[in-house]
Design goal:
Elements (H helix, E strand, L loop, with lengths): L6 E2 L17 H10 L4 E3 L10 H9 L4 E4 L15
Parallel strand pairs: 1-2, 2-3
Amino acid sequence: MTPIRVANAPCSWGVLELAEGESAGYEQVLDEIAASGFVGSELGDWGFMPSEPAALAAALAARELAMVGAFVPVALADRAAHEP
Protein backbone atom coordinates (compact mmCIF):
# COMPACT_ATOMS: atom_id res chain seq x y z
CA MET A 1 0.00 0.00 0.00
CA THR A 2 1.32 3.45 -0.92
CA PRO A 3 1.34 5.94 1.97
CA ILE A 4 -0.70 9.11 1.62
CA ARG A 5 1.46 12.17 0.99
CA VAL A 6 0.12 15.33 2.61
CA ALA A 7 1.05 18.97 2.09
CA ASN A 8 0.32 22.06 4.17
CA ALA A 9 0.09 25.82 3.64
CA PRO A 10 1.41 29.04 5.19
CA CYS A 11 -2.07 29.92 6.46
CA SER A 12 -1.79 26.99 8.88
CA TRP A 13 0.99 28.99 10.57
CA GLY A 14 -1.27 32.03 10.92
CA VAL A 15 1.06 34.20 8.88
CA LEU A 16 -1.53 35.48 6.44
CA GLU A 17 -4.27 36.49 8.83
CA LEU A 18 -2.17 38.73 11.07
CA ALA A 19 -2.97 42.39 10.59
CA GLU A 20 -0.53 43.56 13.25
CA GLY A 21 2.68 42.35 14.81
CA GLU A 22 5.35 40.04 13.55
CA SER A 23 4.78 36.67 12.00
CA ALA A 24 7.02 33.83 10.93
CA GLY A 25 8.87 34.32 7.67
CA TYR A 26 8.64 31.91 4.77
CA GLU A 27 11.92 30.20 5.70
CA GLN A 28 10.68 29.33 9.19
CA VAL A 29 7.33 28.20 7.81
CA LEU A 30 8.98 25.92 5.24
CA ASP A 31 11.41 24.57 7.87
CA GLU A 32 8.51 23.70 10.15
CA ILE A 33 6.38 22.23 7.35
CA ALA A 34 9.27 19.90 6.46
CA ALA A 35 10.06 19.09 10.11
CA SER A 36 6.40 18.17 10.66
CA GLY A 37 6.61 15.49 7.98
CA PHE A 38 4.65 17.19 5.22
CA VAL A 39 5.92 16.72 1.66
CA GLY A 40 4.82 20.02 0.13
CA SER A 41 3.33 23.45 0.57
CA GLU A 42 0.85 25.76 -1.03
CA LEU A 43 2.28 29.11 -2.16
CA GLY A 44 0.31 31.35 0.19
CA ASP A 45 -0.38 35.00 -0.52
CA TRP A 46 1.66 36.43 -3.39
CA GLY A 47 4.91 37.82 -2.04
CA PHE A 48 5.04 35.70 1.12
CA MET A 49 7.45 33.25 -0.52
CA PRO A 50 10.01 34.25 -3.15
CA SER A 51 8.32 35.27 -6.41
CA GLU A 52 11.47 34.54 -8.44
CA PRO A 53 11.07 30.94 -9.66
CA ALA A 54 14.70 29.90 -9.11
CA ALA A 55 14.75 31.26 -5.55
CA LEU A 56 11.46 29.54 -4.71
CA ALA A 57 12.65 26.26 -6.24
CA ALA A 58 15.87 26.44 -4.22
CA ALA A 59 14.00 27.12 -0.96
CA LEU A 60 11.73 24.13 -1.58
CA ALA A 61 14.52 21.81 -2.75
CA ALA A 62 16.62 22.59 0.32
CA ARG A 63 13.80 21.11 2.41
CA GLU A 64 12.78 18.38 -0.05
CA LEU A 65 9.34 19.96 -0.43
CA ALA A 66 7.09 20.28 -3.48
CA MET A 67 4.91 23.24 -4.42
CA VAL A 68 1.42 21.78 -4.70
CA GLY A 69 -0.85 24.76 -5.29
CA ALA A 70 -1.38 28.48 -5.10
CA PHE A 71 -3.88 30.80 -3.46
CA VAL A 72 -5.53 33.33 -5.76
CA PRO A 73 -7.70 35.82 -3.85
CA VAL A 74 -10.41 36.43 -6.46
CA ALA A 75 -14.08 36.65 -5.61
CA LEU A 76 -15.27 34.39 -8.42
CA ALA A 77 -18.93 35.10 -7.68
CA ASP A 78 -18.28 38.82 -8.33
CA ARG A 79 -17.91 39.42 -12.10
CA ALA A 80 -16.39 42.87 -11.42
CA ALA A 81 -13.45 41.17 -9.68
CA HIS A 82 -12.55 39.01 -12.69
CA GLU A 83 -10.77 41.56 -14.87
CA PRO A 84 -8.37 43.00 -12.24
